Amino acid sequence: MWDRVFQQSQYEVYAEGDTPRGVMAVHRARSSDGANFIALAARDADAAGRLAEAVPRGSTIIHLTDEFPLAVLEPRAQEFHPLPAWLFELVPQDFVDHPDDRVRPLNPGSAGRVAKLWQPAWPAEAYVRRRIEGGPTAAIYEADEPVAWALTHTITDRVGIIGMVHVLEEYRRKGLARSVVSAVSRELQKVGKRPTLHAFVDNVASLSLFSSLGFRKVKRQVWGDAVFQ
Question: Which of 6, 11, 60, 214 sits at 20 to 30 Å (Cα–Cα) from 34?
Answer without folding.
Answer: 6
